[in-house]
Amino acid sequence: MSKHTIWDGPLVSSVEPLKARRLFLLLRDRILSGDIGPNTRLPSEPLLAQEHGVSRVTVRRALDKLADEGLIERRPGSGTFVNTRPTSAQVTADFSNVLTHLVEMGRRTDVKLISFAYMAPTPALTSDLKLQPGERVQRSVRVRLIDGQPFSYLITHVPERIGISYSEADLASTPLLELLERSGIVAERAQQIIGATLAGPEVAAALDLEIGAALLSMTRIVYDPSGRGIEHLQALYRPDRYSLNMDLIRTGANGARRWSPVERPRVSTPKTKSIPKTRVNRVSIQRRTTR
Amino acid sequence: MSKHTIWDGPLVSSVEPLKARRLFLLLRDRILSGDIGPNTRLPSEPLLAQEHGVSRVTVRRALDKLADEGLIERRPGSGTFVNTRPTSAQVTADFSNVLTHLVEMGRRTDVKLISFAYMAPTPALTSDLKLQPGERVQRSVRVRLIDGQPFSYLITHVPERIGISYSEADLASTPLLELLERSGIVAERAQQIIGATLAGPEVAAALDLEIGAALLSMTRIVYDPSGRGIEHLQALYRPDRYSLNMDLIRTGANGARRWSPVERPRVSTPKTKSIPKTRVNRVSIQRRTTR
DNA sequence: TCAAGCTGTCCTATTGATGGCACAGCTTTC
DNA sequence: GAAAGCTGTGCCATCAATAGGACAGCTTGA
Prior knowledge:
Chain A is built from nine helices and eleven strands.
């Protein structure tokens, strides 16, 4: 039943080209979710191979990748063990802060401006921002880093009439919304859509990820009091370095009980006791950009 | 240092396992971002092959995948065209409803119970739910469907003392929180973490996706007034069928302006004027390709 | 001490993914 | 109507990914 038919049902296309990747993802999820738990010994390579119907070579590749990410430790003669890990995201955004700043607990955040240009809007942009016919937009792509590590990829579109109120240099140093409000532009209403997507080549490179990695996606459109769009943001986050947290309390009478968001204490305890060295290496290799 | 394996460079894959996948993601991003725009004709297959330095076979695979997702339409003899409105999610959850029901605009939602068992908790679960030593948990896995199409995969862990207050059959028909409150258990506080992850084999099969697809992830822990955990939920959503929407308004004085969530009208205009036929096609095709 | 079991390494088939080419059928353009 | 260009399809060659072994060196436990 589940021998060669493992790939029976699923959606599109052919055959999974990478069983190793598949096994890697499976084990990674089990480890990160705490399902396997730190310091536990994984099943032996031959066992894993048998359980998942793959060869030991494939199992080894999956384990190699896990070891590369620092999730497991392999002890020859003994077994393969799950590492204790600075688990969840390094940066968390409280719900009420989503639109403003990050929770910056004494960490240094930088912004790198990838591109900056004025262009004709796509049809989708025109309708989202309620642009006038012929009106152009400013497109900027930025990457945010914390402690030198990239965690978000931001594609921003702003109507030209608004974009000219600040400079390219401003954008590289100041949050866009702040720039806008500083110029007297009033943000009144906003709509956010949160989803998930896969990393394409450019985004993957910018966020120091492999192509096809999972990303948390947020699309935001900000409107002024007259209902015209003043900012269109497409943000892509590395889920291992950024997540959306919210605390909720149950309110209301018994008949109509519901959940309400709660203010978070501003500084959550920095649980970054040790940055895994693999990460550090990777970043230093990647780029020694801004100071 | 890094052995002789193909996976040499830790993350940024020097050798990409799947050129087709890579090209697929690249084109998908350009289409979804509006970079290519609806009704535009893509470069011809030979041209794309040349531009990206791959063979036409590979280009074809990438385009096949795009077509499967309904993003493009291929017209023999004419060219390959970007479809109008790659569409957004079919189901959207308003922020204030995240914890309750979906916005069910006259659509039929079903729940399928995948598994149900009592087991020993993992270490992570023990700490998350603040379990007593030796206390067991009830684990249930459910899939939610709308109009017969799966969109969410729910893994729930509940302390045994609480789980016994309802039956397996209850779980397949009623939301868990409702069951709990019906039993007199009080949900007081909750914490939610939203992120993204990749689909593993089981989840992919259950949600009718391919392995490695992007998923919106939500982890929720609900506590009773005494601070003990009563529910641990790991929810995985198909981002093309479910997304998190929120409307915000700018409040507060000039000094401390911030964003606050806004109540949504309960029934958002069903922008599903017509379920795009591409979707329908996909489903039927999907069944056909079972081999 | 010995036996069992584990990882590290090497080897050889087989299968899948890709590259490269040719041709048919269709649409558009001139 | 003809030419050009596109997608759909088939074929074969090449190379990477996987399967399936074998063996060495190590650790653990009896």
